[in-house]
């Protein structure tokens, strides 16, 4: 067992190995140099956000300010709005139900004032981040299943992915069924999940 001070250290290492600082695939040398130079000059708090982004959840079920949630695929629920702050990007993501309600214009009806307030809250919080941060991050507003959602999907822990499901013995039919049921939380990636990463670390620690 790790001490309290080191209990979250492994998950920071997991997100660091997936970050722009170590992963150079699909990034130009200039981009990689830029990200690393900003990290070297950043404060501790900003550096922590760069390595493990902050994720906030907005929903009808909670009262008061938005709630921090785990940076995990299971957080991508159809009835919530998520705000991701990765320092370089600020992403506002709408779940499938929220997106459908907005497309149908419910937020413009007086009887759905609570929906209008729910949609407005993450936009206001994102504006505060954009106004106060330098260099100014890229702002992305996206929906479940949209192409821009990749900015969020690339950061969350793929706790549910096709590789993991295949290893657990699910056939192709079951794989497609699970994918449809899970929606956006089912991420198509070859990257290992945090659980697999931790299990491997434990195995190496025991062997040594």
From TrEMBL:
Pfam families: Gelsolin (PF00626), Sec23_helical (PF04815). The gene is SEC23. This is Protein transport protein SEC23. It comes from Toxoplasma gondii. PANTHER family: PROTEIN TRANSPORT PROTEIN SEC23. The keyword Cell membrane does not apply. One of its GO terms (cellular component) is endoplasmic reticulum membrane. Component of the coat protein complex II (COPII) which promotes the formation of transport vesicles from the endoplasmic reticulum (ER). The coat has two main functions, the physical deformation of the endoplasmic reticulum membrane into vesicles and the selection of cargo molecules. The keyword Membrane applies. Residues 66-152 form the Gelsolin-like domain. InterPro entries: ADF-H/Gelsolin-like_dom_sf, Gelsolin-like_dom, Gelsolin-like_dom_sf, Sec23, Sec23/24_helical_dom, Sec23/24_helical_dom_sf. GO terms for molecular function: GTPase activator activity; metal ion binding. Keywords: Cytoplasm, Cytoplasmic vesicle, Endoplasmic reticulum, ER-Golgi transport, Golgi apparatus, Membrane, Metal-binding, Protein transport, Transport, Zinc. One of its GO terms (biological process) is intracellular protein transport. It is found in: Cytoplasmic vesicle, COPII-coated vesicle membrane; Endoplasmic reticulum membrane; Golgi apparatus membrane. It is a peripheral membrane protein. Belongs to the SEC23/SEC24 family. SEC23 subfamily. Residues 2-48 form the Sec23/Sec24 helical domain. Its main location: membrane.
């Amino acid at each position: 067992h790790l001490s309290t001070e080191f209990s979250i250290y492994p998950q920071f290492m997991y997100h660091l190995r997936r970050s722009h600082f170590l992963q150079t695939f699909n990034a130009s040398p200039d981009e990689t140099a830029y990200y690393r130079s900003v990290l070297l000059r950043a404060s501790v708090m900003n550096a922590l956000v760069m390595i493990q982004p902050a994720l906030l959840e907005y929903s009808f079920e909670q009262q008061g300010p938005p709630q921090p949630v785990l940076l995990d695929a299971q957080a991508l629920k159809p009835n919530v709005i998520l705000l991701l702050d990765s320092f370089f990007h600020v992403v506002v993501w709408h779940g499938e139900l929220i997106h459908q309600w907005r497309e149908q214009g419910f937020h413009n009806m007086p009887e759905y004032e609570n929906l209008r307030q729910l949609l407005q809250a993450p936009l206001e919080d994102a504006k505060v981040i954009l106004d106060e941060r330098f260099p100014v991050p890229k702002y992305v507003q996206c929906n479940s299943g949209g192409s821009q959602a990749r900015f969020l999907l690339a950061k969350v822990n793929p706790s549910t992915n096709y590789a993991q499901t295949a290893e657990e013995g699910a056939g192709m039919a079951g794989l497609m069924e699970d994918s449809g049921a899970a929606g956006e939380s089912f991420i198509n990636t070859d990257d290992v999940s945090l659980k697999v990463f931790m299990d491997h670390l434990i195995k190496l620690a025991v062997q040594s």
